[in-house]
């Protein structure tokens, strides 16, 4: 039985044509927040290329999204794999004619430990996937966005990027890095008609967060930092991303939108 968190119940109301004619590439999008983002961008009219590491997951997600009338292609892409990233962008070009929107959503947290006790291999893995791959995806998408006369990039960071979550120190630092990368790239490409923004989700009910959202003790501890006293839903993050990549955010660049139920977010 699949454990994929494919929630199709709440987003249908967002059918709109805000992203009609746009092509979006979303990484880590066969499940969780990435899947919700792909679905939402598709509901708003975009053609979407979804991707993740496991072919089975990609295929299932494609079937689900197509059953919703979304124009979607799926590609196996581990974001650290250069060949697979190339295939991701090639698919967007060959199937949909180009790329207007990149959502860099993949992240890992292979082990938890205090920052100064973290194994170097764990540190490298976290920074390779969460930071370096996001940078490479943006770098590789850039010429494609230029060909379209502009576009939009969104990085998915975390509330932990503002306030390090113990014991997720290295992961938290990687997410803080994305806030800086958003600003740095946004200023560099501002005259290319490309906007670069970031979303910082709070604690969202997905497989990734299950360790801190499922047991009663963990749940109480996690919710203690959330004024709304509930976890976020993937669709609530997707709504923020859809706003940022749409013309409704035409005067917004270099920003991070915190979607965290009121959790304190200040560097
Ligand atoms: P999730 O539910 O566990 O979904 C992970 C998705 O990513 C799956 O589709 C998985 O599919 C894919 N994936 C994992 N590693 C990948 C890789 N190296 N390359 C490509 N795809 C990969 O996770 P999530 O909670 O939606 O997290 C998505 C993003 O939100 C992450 O950047 C995370 O840091 C951020 N975030 C999450 C929370 C939260 O509370 N959930 C809070 C703040 C920020 P495969 O297994 O097939 O690869």
TrEMBL record:
Protein name in the entry: Dehydrogenase/reductase SDR family member 4
Matches recorded under NCBIfam families: PRK07231.1
Record family assignment: Belongs to the short-chain dehydrogenases/reductases (SDR) family.
InterPro entries linked: NAD(P)-bd_dom_sf, SDR_fam
Organism per entry: Iphiclides podalirius
SUPFAM superfamilies the record matches: NAD(P)-binding Rossmann-fold domains (SSF51735)
Pfam families reported in the protein's UniProt record: adh_short_C2 (PF13561)
